[in-house]
Amino acid sequence: MENKKHEKILIIGAGGGREHAVGWKIAQSERCGKLFFARGNAGTAELGENLDLKETDLPALLNFAKTEKIDLTLALSDDPLALGIVDLFQKEGLRIWGPSKAAAKLEWSKAYAKEFMKQHHLPTATFETFTDFNKAKEYIEARALPIVIKASGLALGKGVVIAQTKEEALATLESFMVKKVFGPAGEEIVIEEYLKGPEVSIHAFSDGKNYAMFPPAQDHKRIGENDTGPNTGGMGSVAPVSSLPGSLLRKIENEVVAPTFSAMSSEGNPFSGVLFPGLMLTEHGHVPKILEFNARLGDPETQTYMRILETDLLDIIDACIDGTLEKLEVKWKDRFACTVVLASGGYPGEHEKGKVITGVKEADKHNHVVIFHAGTRMEEGQLVTNGGRVLGVSATGHTLEEALSIAYEAIGRIHFEGMQYRRDIGKKVLIMLR
């Protein structure tokens, strides 16, 4: 598919900042034709056409792709991957980017992923999996605190609790397994040891045989500053984390990334797309341990990465699909980038929608700022909130401090009722750099 124009491209995802950022990057390619988004937001509407189709309605998406003669589809979010959208489209002879349902199981079943890590001697926390509430309760009663409890299935990035007390642990267990706050996702749970250390997000493109590493990034999962409060889908990200020594990055590649791709192939499920292991650089020499696998681009890491990716994203995607990634050099700009998420009041809990957003055009005027939309829509000519994470204010700079300064200056021009954001994005990385 080298040098061929893609006349019609369908981007399937949750309609958040990741989808806007990927569309924004692809739109810069000379080979990009018309873009369709399922789902979209007010930002993606400026790049192409938003469709009234849910990312989980696979029959409707397939019908649209066939009817419209879509020549490239990108499956960007976890739910359609878990439902097998890649397998379905490929069976119908359609060109699609993303891992198969079997390969994506690394994300949609934490229990499977942990057993996979154990079987293939990949570094991770000690753990046990449970489907029986009483057995899980007995296990917790006998364990040291704090302890980590995870819903095995997909839970919008919120199905992980670090319980500091027995009471909190048992309440979490009950909410997941008895009250079913995450539905079927919490019917099976993983309980694992608590690890301490800085987290780092690692991404790698893969064509099933070859892979290309991204620069390391850091996400900020907790809602509150200094990593306090409940987990969210991510409140901000920075890249690259330049303070990580090359020896550590090689260790991560050789002990996590390469063996994972090799093991997936050996099991008959070669991984094509983007693998995203979240790592903890544990105490005692920053030994990397896998916290979880994601089978797609992270959010908000994608917004940050798209600002510094130099190679045409369509070239990379085509190489992944065609199995020719080893022929392509994936280049990154010699810049730092950050993304700070502006969220609705109440997020990650209950939050209101329809709040008028002002100042986005003013904030977007800075040369090094791009505003990526997530939970937004247009209503009677006004931009309004339409979700928990509303906007991602992204900036680049020659240093991380410069990028963050530009982003926070831009945020000062944006307002909507209840707007909340973290003021310490990148702070840990800056401390590591000193």
What does this protein structure show overall?
- 32% of the residues lie in helices and 26% in strands.
- The chain is an alpha+beta fold and 434 residues long.
- The chain has a five-stranded parallel beta sheet, sandwiched between helices.
- The longest helix has 21 residues, at 246-266.
- The mean pLDDT is 95.
**Overall mean pLDDT score?**
95
Number of DSSP strands?
Answer: 23
C-alpha end-to-end distance: 45 Å
Order of strands side by side in the largest beta sheet?
Answer: 3-2-1-4-5
The biggest sheet, with number of strands, parallel, antiparallel or mixed sense and barrel status, is: 5 strands, parallel
Q: How many DSSP helices? A: 15
Percentage of residues in DSSP E strands: 25-35%
What is the molecular shape? globular
Low-confidence stretches: none
| Backbone CA Rg | 21 Å
The percent of residues in helical segments reads 25-40%
Structural class: alpha+beta
Helix and strand arrangement:
Blueprint: E1 6-12, H1 17-26, E2 32-38, E3 49-50, H2 58-67, E4 72-75, H3 78-83, H4 85-91, E5 96-97, H5 101-108, H6 110-119, E6 127-130, H7 133-141, E7 147-151, E8 160-163, H8 166-177, E9 189-193, E10 199-201, E11 204-207, E12 211-213, E13 218-219, E14 222-224, E15 228-231, E16 236-239, H9 246-266, E17 272-282, H10 283-286, E18 287-294, H11 301-308, H12 313-322, E19 336-343, H13 360-363, E20 369-373, E21 376-379, E22 382-385, E23 389-397, H14 400-411, H15 427-433
Parallel strand pairs: 1-2, 1-4, 2-3, 4-5
Antiparallel strand pairs: 6-9, 7-8, 7-9, 10-17, 11-12, 11-17, 13-16, 14-15, 16-19, 17-18, 19-23, 20-23, 21-22
